[in-house]
Amino acid sequence: MIKGIGIDMVELSRIEKIITRKSSFVNRVLTENEQALFEELPHKRQVEFLAGRFACKEAFSKAWGTGIGAVGLQDIEILKEKNGAPKVTKSPHDGQVFVSISHTETSAVAQIILESS
Length: 117
Known about the structure:
It catalyses: apo-[ACP] + CoA = holo-[ACP] + adenosine 3',5'-bisphosphate + H(+). By secondary structure, the protein is of the alpha+beta class. The protein has a single domain (2-115), classed as CATH 3.90.470.20. Helices cover 39% and strands 31% of the residues. The protein has helices at 12-21, 24-29, 32-39, 43-64, and strands spanning 2-11, 77-80, 86-90, 96-103, 107-115. It has a three-stranded antiparallel sheet. α1 crosses α4 (43-64). The protein is globular.
């Protein structure tokens, strides 16, 4: 049974400006494991990666029904499958979590579906 659905969209230019002005934003949004993936990427992909992960975490909080605050950015971790697909590996939800991330030249969008048994 579906417990919640969330979607969020982030402008890449906004994330790039934040990275330039506040490098601490990366540490606030990404877990250590996500940061390791982030560090391996060239700058353009780092912006896309961070925007996608931020959108995922916002989408999760919407699906969870609380918004960011009741569930923290560090409480949710999105790594990747062997084929590169995103996978939620840590969250407060005890059921299955489905995630999709997409990028354009200007935006990143993420959708989360929470399923409970």
